[in-house]
Amino acid sequence: MKRKLVTFGEILMRLSCEDHLRFSQAHTFNVVYGGSEANVAISASNFGMSVDFVSVVPHTDFGNASLAELKISKVGTDNIVFRGKRLGLYFLEKGAVNRGSKVIYDRANSSFAEVKSEWFDWEDILKNCNQFHWSGITPAISKAAAEVCLEAVETAEKMGISISADLNYRGNLWQYDVIPEEIMTNLVSKSNVLLAGGYACKQFFGIQTQNSSNLELFEELTQKFPKLEKIAITNRIEMNASHHKWSANLYNGKTILNSTEYDIFPIVDRVGTGDSFMGALLYGLQHYEDQQALDFATAASCIKHSIYGDINRVSKEEVVKLMEGDISGRISR
Amino acid sequence: MKRKLVTFGEILMRLSCEDHLRFSQAHTFNVVYGGSEANVAISASNFGMSVDFVSVVPHTDFGNASLAELKISKVGTDNIVFRGKRLGLYFLEKGAVNRGSKVIYDRANSSFAEVKSEWFDWEDILKNCNQFHWSGITPAISKAAAEVCLEAVETAEKMGISISADLNYRGNLWQYDVIPEEIMTNLVSKSNVLLAGGYACKQFFGIQTQNSSNLELFEELTQKFPKLEKIAITNRIEMNASHHKWSANLYNGKTILNSTEYDIFPIVDRVGTGDSFMGALLYGLQHYEDQQALDFATAASCIKHSIYGDINRVSKEEVVKLMEGDISGRISR
Amino acid sequence: MKRKLVTFGEILMRLSCEDHLRFSQAHTFNVVYGGSEANVAISASNFGMSVDFVSVVPHTDFGNASLAELKISKVGTDNIVFRGKRLGLYFLEKGAVNRGSKVIYDRANSSFAEVKSEWFDWEDILKNCNQFHWSGITPAISKAAAEVCLEAVETAEKMGISISADLNYRGNLWQYDVIPEEIMTNLVSKSNVLLAGGYACKQFFGIQTQNSSNLELFEELTQKFPKLEKIAITNRIEMNASHHKWSANLYNGKTILNSTEYDIFPIVDRVGTGDSFMGALLYGLQHYEDQQALDFATAASCIKHSIYGDINRVSKEEVVKLMEGDISGRISR
Amino acid sequence: MKRKLVTFGEILMRLSCEDHLRFSQAHTFNVVYGGSEANVAISASNFGMSVDFVSVVPHTDFGNASLAELKISKVGTDNIVFRGKRLGLYFLEKGAVNRGSKVIYDRANSSFAEVKSEWFDWEDILKNCNQFHWSGITPAISKAAAEVCLEAVETAEKMGISISADLNYRGNLWQYDVIPEEIMTNLVSKSNVLLAGGYACKQFFGIQTQNSSNLELFEELTQKFPKLEKIAITNRIEMNASHHKWSANLYNGKTILNSTEYDIFPIVDRVGTGDSFMGALLYGLQHYEDQQALDFATAASCIKHSIYGDINRVSKEEVVKLMEGDISGRISR
Amino acid sequence: MKRKLVTFGEILMRLSCEDHLRFSQAHTFNVVYGGSEANVAISASNFGMSVDFVSVVPHTDFGNASLAELKISKVGTDNIVFRGKRLGLYFLEKGAVNRGSKVIYDRANSSFAEVKSEWFDWEDILKNCNQFHWSGITPAISKAAAEVCLEAVETAEKMGISISADLNYRGNLWQYDVIPEEIMTNLVSKSNVLLAGGYACKQFFGIQTQNSSNLELFEELTQKFPKLEKIAITNRIEMNASHHKWSANLYNGKTILNSTEYDIFPIVDRVGTGDSFMGALLYGLQHYEDQQALDFATAASCIKHSIYGDINRVSKEEVVKLMEGDISGRISR
Amino acid sequence: MKRKLVTFGEILMRLSCEDHLRFSQAHTFNVVYGGSEANVAISASNFGMSVDFVSVVPHTDFGNASLAELKISKVGTDNIVFRGKRLGLYFLEKGAVNRGSKVIYDRANSSFAEVKSEWFDWEDILKNCNQFHWSGITPAISKAAAEVCLEAVETAEKMGISISADLNYRGNLWQYDVIPEEIMTNLVSKSNVLLAGGYACKQFFGIQTQNSSNLELFEELTQKFPKLEKIAITNRIEMNASHHKWSANLYNGKTILNSTEYDIFPIVDRVGTGDSFMGALLYGLQHYEDQQALDFATAASCIKHSIYGDINRVSKEEVVKLMEGDISGRISR
């Protein structure tokens, strides 16, 4: 039986200041690698799924290094293409209290941005796959990336593979000549599972809702994209940069499910928390009923806020313990 | 006049990840040394008591290094035996928010675990002592350690020395062929001062209480161990790994005394906080009335939560300032 | 048009322990440079004002290094005198929760403390200046410093330059033979803008007020120092060393203005927050109405609590964003 | 065609002091993982060979972490067994000039030391293997390890697989009841490729040679172990802890081949240099004539002296460049 | 009298691995900023010259940060243009012994590469200038950069300003459609002072010389570029990556002058050593006779090898001390 | 039998830059504590002598911290007086190759400099002492320090205790109104063992010798100071800051003994190497014949060059191994 998750996207080098130093104070940067779809891949693999990550990285020391975490987590890397000149970068200054974190992207002209259609044989790549995952970052990177993403989605659709997406709106990308709504509508219309968000829906599809509940948004999305079977939304209430409240909803076309709300304070690293939700949700939907899947994903992503880096280094056991209500953070010895 | 405190137990090397890194992310470990009874010794010495620590460490660079903090704090080390092959270790991953801290012990077959009775002349060691302290960790380590601990306690009892104990239940120890209840009952029955805890009492003695107040537990303990003159319990409410509420009770056979409850957030290092309470309580009981002794111990251990390492590096003046109600944490300059 | 701010005072090397380590645990110190009047200078310059800092530093590598941040921020350093033997130092141990931070000054006999009147031609220094700023730390350092400060203030007064002051009471200074009240009364009586504080007013001028509101204090100060046009007070409520509430008032001789109260938790570095308020207030008073000036200064200094070092590294845009009510600390990417 | 190298041995956590600090000065340890046979596996894999590493590690965070470098380097880990209680450790203090480096082993009772025969199906493990590699460290660890090592060697012999060995004499191991000569003679007599050494040969086999040349030793070994087809010896001249001269010889039963002698100063990390020679030799013998294989192995291990950690992170291209005579260490940009 | 040095070129962020770690081992990068012409500017300014650096940097935190060192060293930055999207980067892995250092450039599409002619009014920029300096890196970056460089050189020539150049051949640049020889010939033909090199002369001009002495090269250059008044060559003999021999020659059209040869071992940081020679030579030629100028430049650049970063942080006094023969490196206290 | 060594002098906080960073590059300082006479005390104690260190430190966290290393090494600290305001400091920038190390003293007005005669009862302090040691740094610090040093020396002389001295000429000290020759002549004339040096002898006593051998100097010293029984000189040949040759001579009034010459490269930390010689010589003279004592002291101080900090952390066994000729720096494992 085919049980492989395949994700497709860009992986970046992240250079972050120590502690809460500002960029202007940084004499060292800490280095990790991550990217939305790679983060999803690793999350799902850490819970035991069979996962493949498809990407393009340059044939340099940094291209190689970007794959280390995937290999350690047993994510397949055989379909990663070594081409082009540079790995995309992003710089991260970690805020605190009323000073927000700051990201400076330096990813233009990356190997991934210059991806070519002929480098991938999607039918072959997806041959053992039962879930294909993409995010809104990929079509935002470049025309080429958008086209390859569409080819992947179309192939998956043709092969009857379930398709999941994270809208992931990034206003600073989408720099090429494109109407985001068109391409995103096309891509989402072929997808079955969606991680949405009010702001992204407004930016991408002009959907505006008034109720504080997410139900209206779920209904509009379902109407617009009839193939969607499950839609999730994470609710982040930002008290300040160090303190968030975190919960999520899952909609299955009929009912709206609610998760516990977690109070997260002080946050260690919020980058990648959405991806950790997505990775855990994909795992959850294959192993649990919907409510449990939602609870699993919310708990997993809650814990991610306490973990340095883009990647959720957490075990299934740890997630289950929190999901079952133990918020004590008790020392285990 | 005899006024020396003698404590007996194992001292370990602690290897902890930086900040909140997980074990799998650690490229460096920070090194300190500590152990419950050594921590008590240093705490008491820092407040001005005359203290001796008795232990076994290997004749290696690490055996020597483990004693540095004791020497700096003027704790006597003349009765520490240099024997055996290895210093016990433990690894510490510091959690945050809903992710708990994690300890991996690597202390089997340590020099201390292979302690021999003939290495200690307890009558000589205790000759200027008026307080002997042991904890439930020592008999849990090995049969040999339990036996030597009992010899020490029996000698102290015979010499009329006050005996104090911290139950310190550690489920992962007690790996040898033993009924913990038997040996602990024997040891506690000879003791006069006890730092107890609801969970430990249940595990060791099967005592189960229903009230949220600690009174019932105090009464059961007093009944079971008539020699006990003072029993203390610390109350830790774990909001999450970063946020605890902390208070304590002291029972003198008649009345139950309550301390202030401190709200501790964000915690810097919670390891050794119980020991810091014990060390301060032993100091307090010799220098104050009971209520003040309790307040001193609670305040001292509250501050420990803000100090890196196993050891409470705090002055008597700092404790008194907090004990008298100044929780402002005002900068002194 | 003259639009230059000139500040006069001492700049120090600050040696701080890593994280929350105690002095006794420190194997490294982090090094930055700062001082109340230099901090004000840099803050104002970062918002776009033309600023000059006047001081004395030794002709050593550390004297030079102390000026780097000023030069980077385009603060003029042409009137800094290179003389004397040593740069003043201070050591900082950063507290947490119920353990306060601790400063050990080591600034006696510094180059600045041995300042000489003949090193400065104040008429020349102040020729393009429209605002001269001093603080209560300078006359506290030494008789010589107090005298030169007075000369500067007198020259500014004679030249019709607006004079601002921060009372900055430091009980551990004022070590020479002096009556602080006399010299401070003389200096403040020539000043037009004041950053005051209840404790400092009591120590310096014996002013004691009963109301929880600052109005009474403002009125007493206005009466005593009729030249004062604007008086500000910052209100710091210390929940503990990691958690403060922060607001401010501004009085223009008639009405008392209130700022937003910010909840700041967890604090990254509270040293220099008062200076960041002062620098922003001087900017604000030249560019805004009073209420906005107060709001700008309060928001700027709120953010300073999240920034390592003595200096407020924040842009006008970041301050305005918070001042306009966005406390979310949202990540910008 | 079978072209896989399989190596079998223990992998350890290495904890090393920063820079040249002594153990007594260490407040942090740097962490890497390594072990003779794992190092050989990674070296060979980095040059492009298909490699499998067989071992036992505990089912803990450290057991998992010890495999990261293998996975990153594409060494197969499917035959690694997760059992037992602890990962072996060693501590490293790096000397300089006339102060030698110091290793403290803490590997007794490790998961590997308690290996069990039934955990491995050697016929299956070796089914695609054409080279099996072991070292003298494995039989030195414990009786159990020696037995499993012998089973592996016997199976390989039976399956007609070439067997290589590194004598790797470690006097501090061999702590169980054993005559090292017996077991080593048995194991080496079945091997075809040997990395020997004068001191090891004397300790293990009582072979003592007088000439400064290695020819006599080669001849004695060939006579004693007729199956040996290739014997290599590395020649390390220790000027002091920071400065070595490094060369090697290879003997094919008839002639003795000599490598270049490299002057290595200052050494960055000498641990694992022998293993880097072995790994490169195994690669070389499959891809080159003998002289080139020797030159390749000597150059590869020369470069290892400049690389931190147990593992030789060097590309084939870099080795070839040095092997062809470019010792300039010219910057590439 | 006009006495200002103006240099024009790109400044980059440099990200280097700690110690001798390889890129694949790096979890942190150390950050400094530098670039050939900025390094020359700072060197000359540190010796007391009046200097201006002209460049383009993006209007980001990193654009600002790249100027800090210039400002600290009093290099004028008023003619630096804030435009474009990214600061160029380079990554540095520091070799040792027989492993060379490795640079990975990531500077394509930088703000400087997309420089525009209209951003600079060269007549105004050069109005107080008596020495204009450029290097062969600038025309190699992009067509736009080459054009602006030529405009600057032509303007300087027209204004009668002395022009200096460092050939600085970088094979990995020159990626646009260009014949390097043409543009370099044009630029050098207008220059008066040249830092050349045998390899660069061969690459750029096809000049090939046979003698080990540099005289022939000097004569060919003088013939080809009759405006050249002074030509210098540095002689680097690379024993290995840690050990160089370093000397230089200066030719004034008639005689060839020789410097001392320095034995530099172990090298701390060799990047920027050529620039430190150039900066010191420009200072020397204005303040000394030719032989002393050569000696000053050679000594200054010798010391640079012991200083971390791209920039030569050395005082005139320190250079003179070495130049006068004190190679002892005696501690000063 | 009296067998205690007592040393008297100042202990300082040392703040050194990381690696080879210049002061202007330092964002952190590493902290250790040391001082000539404390270093001697610890060296001798580490070899097994009974030692007491006498000094004055302030009653601050830094005064306490300065004693930690003494306590760890079992040097007696009971006669250290806690008085005054500040601990002396010194800053250290570590040179390399042709750039020398740089020390900036900041020790004026320290607690020790303001020592008072009445704080010490020398007869009591020296009651179990058989060797009193002082160095030329102490009388150089202040008039008060010189007077107390003289009192100590006079008391020791009166009590028949052997007196040793290290001339330790520091030109930057001796800032008070004094003729160094007078006081040094007085002090040395009462001493029995001397560590001298050609430069110090010239500065202090005007002794100038012409021969490259030290014999003439020994003879002049013996003539001038007839009480001297043993005089040692260390010979440091500074190839450059990273590379020294190191040997020593000992003169017993009749013959001159020579040590091995060690080639030390690259030096880790040269501060305190003279003190390590002195401490080992005092041990050696009590336990060996003169030649061996010299060899022991030279070997011990050779090793000190490889150890970070002021203090020689080396065991007697390690010294003996080198002293017996093993310069290989072989790894011990």
UniProtKB/TrEMBL annotation, chains A, B, C, D, E, F:
Keywords: Kinase, Transferase
Carbohydrate kinase PfkB domain ranges (all copies): 3-208
SUPFAM superfamilies: Ribokinase-like (SSF53613)
Domain of life: Bacteria
GO molecular function, one term: kinase activity
Pfam families: PfkB
Gene3D superfamilies in the cross-refs: 3.40.1190.20
Family: Belongs to the carbohydrate kinase PfkB family.
Protein name (record): Sugar kinase
